[in-house]
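Hey, resending since the last one bounced:
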Amino acid sequence: MASRKRILGLPILLVCIVAGLIPARPAVGPEEWPPISAEDAAMKDCSREPGAPAVILYRAEATDADKRTTTVFKRLKILTAAGRDRSSIEIPFVAGYSEVVEIEARVVPPQGPARLFDGEIFERTDLRRGRLRLAAKTFALPNIEVGSIIDYRYKIVHGRSGRSAKRLNALIDELTASEDRPEEGGVKDRKSPRAIPAWRWTVQEDLFTKHLKLSYTNMMAGISALLGAGGRLAWASVGMELGKPFITFGSAFMELHNIPSFAAEDSMIPEAVARMSVDLFFIDHEIASGAEYWQLEGRDWQKGVEEFIGRPEPLAAVARRIVGDAAEPMGQLERLYAEVQGFRNLSYEKDLTEETKKEQKIKDNRRVEDVLERRYGLRSDLTRTFVKLAMAAGFEAEVVRVTARDNKLFRKELLSFNDQLDSEIALVKAAGRTMALDPATPFCPFGLVHWARTNSTGLRASGDPPGFFTTPLSPPDMALTQREIVLALDPQGGLAGTVKTTYRGQDALVRRLDHIRDDEVARREALEKELGDLLPMGATVRLTGVENIDNNEPSLIVTCDVAIPGLVNEAGGKTLVPFFPLAGSGQYPFRHAARRYPVYLPYPSRQFDDIRITLPEGLAVAHRPQPRKNACDFSSYSVVCGQEASNLLHIQRDLVIKKIFFPVERYAALKAFFDQIRAIDAEQIVLAPGAGDLMGN
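The structure tokens again:
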């Protein structure tokens, strides 16, 4: 059933998802352009961000919810030769749902009159998913000089196609469905929803913004009916130290100056909580506080879980049959887990349209018994089924709702239950401890929870009221990459051989989900590229075998043939071999001297390399690096280089990352640690002509 929350905000919500926040055109006539100030005309550099290729002098965005339009005006100034790339303009939209109209543009060169754009505007379809087409209007402004000012404006009309609310909701479902965002059973519709998402202003762009003006108006039509006695517009912000919106009845306004540019960094917090933004939402006027909202919503969700699960006693015989002869608690739970994980998981089927459901006679599950009979369900259906079976087998078990932190972090001030708490997992007490389990994630082995649902804010269904807690973080050994590298040094100074990589825990699960829908060719290319990115330039990789990529066996094994030409150097009659022959640039993150955002890793991890290098006849080891071990509070690194025979080097390398979050002030220590690793890996093993180990070992 379509949600009231979605129906209300259809015209604006979908555009927000697809295009992010699109700036808007002020009320000027068709031939009028806002005047350019003398200061902007004279600007040659951005004083707050020296060297910036371009700046946004002015951006205005105005959303009229009643008219279902967003108008746009944006003014750019080109400051460097590199900034001329900004003359290619792209306006994204959803084809068949939104329409981009009234596109106008001009260029004001440093010298001479303004030139109106009269060139061709193209439409590009980026992606087709079912019947949904993501598209963009594009055009390029010619002959852009450094110092030029670019003005452009347009209007987006939302819901222009005239489709029904049901069809529009289906489009949203198609757009947002993915294996990383599978559908969950959340708080169901009620006569008076307590909060309704309205709009997101993404304040920060990729360029410095000198002046920003935002407005959101005329959204009260129908709000009173949906929120019972009425509602009020509220807001929550991210990274906003520059100001706050002015709120009136059904409208919001905001004006800001000197907004820094946003630049993505490797291993950073999710962009949704890194970019400065403001979320607008309507809230029932009877809700006195955020704490009250979460308490009431939690109770509603709790009630829905209890209704779906029901009493466990009627399933005692079913649970006994599944458990079979397993005597130990862990063995019993593992069999129940395997039973549910073997069901068809609808949440990971992107192509499951409403038409497909009808053809396959797929029905909505209303209770656990439906899932057991039909042997299919959404993520939430499967999690709740596992919990009921565990309860029927005599375990204490409950459902927990959490935030999947791969692209968001929980923000208590943002009153949006289903969007924030978007996943369900199970908590079970067994053998004297409480375990978090994730039976509704394909290929997730028993005892593991997908990393996005670890170290995450969760809401427990047990208790009155339901309470928040944090899910446990998986330890490093539950994300293990182990490589067995067997290479031979040839007379030409190249290394060739095999790399057998064994992934366990999170490292295995991530790759299984990444390739869940790949055909053999796409899978081969992706796995070869992954290893190739870790090797020196010029290396070649050929996949020779993959084991356990489509099941939840503990180990995913990938075997490749590799060739690394020209890696070995000659100096003074001696041969120099890198201590770690796989030391490509992809091995070493955190190269930048400074950092704007905290480092945020997916999960703790361990990487172990076991390397054997066969030397050609006539060469012996004259020098090899001494064993090393570096350790600190967040990581450890150890290496040892020995010989198993006169012509066989044996190197072992062990890297453990214990933490996932590093504030900016700790970046220097993190970078220094990885710099040390890179320096050790770059040390040379010295070979000299001889018939044995010249070191006497």
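Residues 578 and 684 are 5 Å apart (CA to CA).

Sorry for the duplicate.
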